[in-house]
Design goal:
Keywords: DNA-binding, Transcription, Transcription regulation
Strand order of the largest sheet: 1-3-2
Largest sheet: 3 strands, antiparallel
GO molecular function, one term: DNA binding
Protein name: DNA-binding GntR family transcriptional regulator
Structural class: mainly alpha
CATH topology of the largest domain: Four Helix Bundle (Hemerythrin (Met), subunit A)
CATH architecture of the largest domain: Up-down Bundle
Order of helices and strands: HEHHEEHHHHHHH
Number of helices: 10
InterPro entries: GntR_C, TF_FadR/GntR_C, Tscrpt_reg_HTH_GntR, WH-like_DNA-bd_sf, WH_DNA-bd_sf
Helix content: over 70%
Strand content: under 5%
Number of strands: 3
Number of domains: 2
């Protein structure tokens, strides 16, 4: 007995889902690269014409970006790129610290005071990837914006590796949920860092985690908060 062929309705649904994902990825990349600045309007008609899709597809993509907190939707203002004020920066960093610092505490407690080898390897691989981009050897895309976007993603992988070391499904899930927002946060921090300084800071942090534990990560996050709030 052979499997039934997909119905026409199922094929249309899959095609629509793929189109929404493609539009979401296109707009997300422009936001996270800085091509679309804070509070920039996102127009359904313009994006539909640009990408050759329906406004319904674009609307669904915008809804996903709002769910990721990369965009906001307000009555009479439409959909706009998220902009951070001092209150939002502080709130996001408090949440991030609560998740990441506790994750590291759990990981160290479970592993006898040292980070698991696989977590260290993943974190160091992310740092090495950032260093390769800085040296011009990595896949940084086109131009400085493309390089920084790739650095931001590797930076996210570094912190995700620390969180994953906890083995806590709920902490990992909560941290993953704010992943896009954290990428946007780092975009705003670009003016305070070079790629080289970001690499050096995270190398130091990785070394200090075994000797100083969660306090090292807490101070690392507080430092970036002060830079932005200052």
């Amino acid at each position: 007995m052979t499997d039934a062929a997909p119905s026409a309705g199922a094929e249309r649904h899959a095609s629509a889902t793929t189109a929404v994902e493609r539009v979401t990825a296109e707009v997300r990349d422009e936001i996270l690269s800085g091509a679309l600045g804070p509070d920039a309007p996102l127009r359904e008609e313009a994006w539909a014409a640009r990408l050759g899709v329906s406004r319904h597809t674009v609307r669904a993509a915008f809804q996903r970006l709002v769910a990721e907190r990369l965009a906001t939707a307000e009555p009479y203002r439409g959909v706009r790129v998220t902009s951070f004020d001092r209150r939002q920066i502080l709130a996001l960093q408090q949440l991030r610290s609560a998740l990441e610092v506790e994750a590291v505490r759990i990981a160290l407690e479970r592993s006898g005071g040292v980070l698991p080898r696989d977590a260290v390897a993943s974190a160091r691989a992310a740092i090495d990837a950032m260093a390769a981009i800085d040296a011009g050897d990595g896949d940084g895309g086109e131009g400085a914006d493309g390089a920084w976007l790739e650095v931001e993603r590797r930076h996210a992988e570094f912190h995700a590796a620390l969180v994953a070391a906890s083995g806590s499904p709920r902490i990992i899930e909560a941290h993953t949920a704010i992943g896009s927002e954290l990428l946007l946060f780092l975009l705003h921090a670009r003016t305070h860092y070079s790629i080289a300084s970001l690499v050096d800071e995270h190398l130091r942090l990785l070394d200090e985690l075994s000797s100083r534990g969660p306090d090292a990560l807490r101070e690392h996050l507080e430092h970036s908060t002060r830079l932005l709030l200052g």
